[in-house]
Amino acid sequence: MAQSGSGFLCFATLLLCSAFATSFSTDPPLLQQHKDRVGRLPGQNFNVSFAHYAGYITVEENAGRTLFYWFIEALEDPHSKPLVLWLNGGPGCSSIAFGQSEEIGPFHINPDGKTLHPNPYSWNRVANILFLDTPVGVGFSYSNNGSELLNNGDNRTAKDNLVFLLKWFERFPQYRSNDFLISGESYAGHYVPQLSQAIVKYNSATKEQAINLKGFMVGNALTDDYHDQLGMFEFMWSSGLISDQTYKLLNLLCDFESVEHPSHSCENIWEIADKELGNIDPYSLFTPPCHANVSQLSRLVRRKNRIGRLGLSTEYDPCTERHSIVYFNRPEVQTALHVDLDHKPATWETCSDVVYTNWKDSPRSVLDIYHELIGMGLKIWVFSGNTDVVIPVTSTRYSISALKLPTLSPWRAWYDDGEVGGWTQEYAGLTFVIVRGAGHEVPLHKPKLALTLVQTFLAGTSMPNLDLLSTS
Amino acid sequence: MAQSGSGFLCFATLLLCSAFATSFSTDPPLLQQHKDRVGRLPGQNFNVSFAHYAGYITVEENAGRTLFYWFIEALEDPHSKPLVLWLNGGPGCSSIAFGQSEEIGPFHINPDGKTLHPNPYSWNRVANILFLDTPVGVGFSYSNNGSELLNNGDNRTAKDNLVFLLKWFERFPQYRSNDFLISGESYAGHYVPQLSQAIVKYNSATKEQAINLKGFMVGNALTDDYHDQLGMFEFMWSSGLISDQTYKLLNLLCDFESVEHPSHSCENIWEIADKELGNIDPYSLFTPPCHANVSQLSRLVRRKNRIGRLGLSTEYDPCTERHSIVYFNRPEVQTALHVDLDHKPATWETCSDVVYTNWKDSPRSVLDIYHELIGMGLKIWVFSGNTDVVIPVTSTRYSISALKLPTLSPWRAWYDDGEVGGWTQEYAGLTFVIVRGAGHEVPLHKPKLALTLVQTFLAGTSMPNLDLLSTS
């Protein structure tokens, strides 16, 4: 989906006009910012010292494509801290359901589906975090033209996300000069580099740094269909999940298959692999699945499954996703988050089947974007929890290896509190970080390690090693 | 180390003479059995309903090669239950230190090194367990001729273990007719099939079923140097522990190397791999190492390390081995276990460096023995904890694949309490069982799953599946 330069320029000009039109046609931005401020949430039995905001931004007026966001300021001194946009994958999954509510956000949901508890490893300890439900049809994001939900794809998502950001910075002009970074996981392995590319092109076309993009970081990210599948087959075999024969047949029958459109024979061997795995949580190999909904979980790893939909980890509640469903369908919660009653979904879902099954365009690889953006000097980090079967560490290794980047700093273990947190290698233009014992949703399974990771990424330093820690 | 039939016959005849000589020259067997009975152990603040015995059996009179055993009767109805011999590896490691004290035995040691707690998953719930420290120089086993500790190897170990068993059954004749099975892990991947082969040959040569051997079961077992190394390199890469370059160089420089005598270039790349891994417990990838002794644990996976020496898992104490060292060096404990003051080691060790570094013969593969014994109809099970880096699941898969056995029952998940306990495949003559989330010492890391495993092995049934469980 790489766009031609001239085509993008026209698009950028249109965007500018659209942005101006908007700023005159609605409430003044700062007033809308004020209106978006969220008070105490239902079930929030603790105080918070930071401000947070939730609301909508219309990214296309004609169809009324409107994206829902939740912006959470940093715990301390937000104006000096970077701004991080977090995107979940699917396609079709809500960043509020996953990113905010069970991964990096400050408000995590108790099993009663009514009350909240603070996440001590919230990324707003080190950054302002912006959660975006994208594209339309995801979470509380909507379109006035329902048929648009049947026409989502990578291309329009990147464009809509860019418009969203331009307008969001109008509403929150005080964050224009902060360092801006994008992060996400799973299918956001497409969204994040694609949006980064769109920003770089927009900035270049308009000859101004409209968005102060400094870099991006993705985890267990869909990157390249060939490497992702090759790595998945290998990881399933080397972890002991599938038979020798199934491993051979997956490699034979699914070789170079598109994730979107696998052949019949590839689908058939996937069915066999699926049965061999048994009732595990493929997003986290060593933790129990949520038994509250056996039918959903017995689906396991299937090509037709959403990538990054579940993600559930014995210090941890495997049913987190279900608590979100209860909480965000409560009318009082929707009111508190300024959800528009005229546009709210009949039932709020963590992931939209409509969006997923009607996805239009998905390039087989985004490695070309990595090449382009590495050349631009963006800070690019790629991390991987090494107990994820869906987009395993092997997949990511194959993709990074294909980039053929020179090594700056050799492979080594990194440490947190004196324990190996994982492994890391710094390449020219890209830093790779493995998080030991984390599944598909790294901040869910290893919240403390994930906070160390984002802190280090934002600081632009190297992952901590044992010597530095013991002398610090 | 396959022995010729005629050579073995002479050996067997000598054994018989030796056995007769012994039975007339010492205490009557039943008297010695009575003398070996162990009372309440120091620090045992709980009652047990079963009997247990500890003592010595001299396997070669001239040099005074004498092996120490600890025999623990089944919790209930021991005479109707099978007898399982358990062997640890190294070479040089004590079955009492590992098998009894932190894996399958009923007496586990508290961190104070003084008191014991009962192991609720002790294998004496389903079998009588015989722990043997073998060969001489291991644990409390000794030789009157110290130079013999410099001449241990697979060959003599198998012979001495056979003599031990013949004499042990003289002392415990009430167990002669019980089903006899052998189990063990790590380097016992050599000992167990080698001893099984020796028993089969002895029974055949003497034309009597002197030892009622029914089968064996090994876990994370050294089996075939080529496959074991190939699998280890692959597992280290696919788990994200080593760099791409180191992975390539290990395969290049250590290809077909002997584990005992690696080349200089292979050793060098091992040193690099070792550093890349960092301070993890290679015997259990996702659990913290014991920080009580950093120098020992920073050694990590090295070719010169003992195989199966450590083995330490967060519901679990990583310093178990250290508690054994304290406990078994206590004079009152040694007295309770009938340790001979004239022959006790200056310091009791969990693993002997002298034995390990002076090991003489170690065949590169025992797959030929598998072929031979499968043909004999022995029940053979092979299991693997899939978080062990030292002899990982990939190694065992390569070795089993090399046996080219027909499949009887296809690959599937097995279940314990409704959760996936691992995966299994039944071949003609061999059953393979993976234990999910277990390290090198499966019964240490996953005690409940290990008890299910041995119970199923002894029953001769298939590993439980979900349907069977939910209807039972």
Structure in a nutshell:
Two copies of one chain form a homodimer. Chain A has 472 residues and is α/β, with parallel strands linked by helices.
Present the secondary structure layout.
Two copies of one chain form a homodimer.
Chain A: H1 5-25, H2 29-36, E1 52-60, E2 65-72, E3 83-87, H3 96-103, E4 107-109, E5 116-118, E6 128-133, H4 154-171, E7 180-186, H5 188-206, E8 213-221, H6 225-238, H7 244-253, H8 264-277, H9 294-297, H10 320-328, H11 331-336, H12 353-357, H13 367-376, E9 379-385, H14 393-403, E10 407-416, E11 419-427, E12 430-435, H15 442-445, H16 447-459, H17 466-471
Parallel strand pairs in A: 3-6, 3-7, 7-8, 8-9, 9-12
Antiparallel strand pairs in A: 1-2, 2-6, 4-5, 10-11, 11-12
Subcellular location (chains A, B): Secreted
Keywords (chains A, B): Carboxypeptidase, Disulfide bond, Glycoprotein, Hydrolase, Protease, Secreted, Signal
Protein name (chains A, B): Carboxypeptidase
Task: Describe the protein in words.
Two copies of one chain form a homodimer. The first copy, chain A, is α/β, with parallel strands linked by helices. The first copy, chain A, has a domain at 29-224 and 360-459: Rossmann fold (3-Layer(aba) Sandwich). Helices cover 38% and strands 17% of the residues of chain A. Chain A has helices spanning 5-25, 29-36, 96-103, 154-171, 188-206, 225-238, 244-253, 264-277, 294-297, 320-328, 331-336, 353-357, 367-376, 393-403, 442-445, 447-459, 466-471, and strands at residues 52-60, 65-72, 83-87, 107-109, 116-118, 128-133, 180-186, 213-221, 379-385, 407-416, 419-427, 430-435. In chain A, a hairpin with a 2-residue loop joins strand 10 (407-416) and strand 11 (419-427). In chain A, 55% of the residues are buried. The model of chain A is unreliable at 1-25, 293-314 and 468-472 (pLDDT under 50). At the A-B interface, helix 6, helix 7, helix 8, helix 14 and strand 10 of A face helix 6, helix 7, helix 8, helix 14 and strand 10 of B. Chains A, B: This is Carboxypeptidase. Chains A, B: It comes from Phaseolus vulgaris. Chains A, B: InterPro entries: AB_hydrolase_fold, Peptidase_S10, Ser_caboxypep_his_AS, Ser_caboxypep_ser_AS.
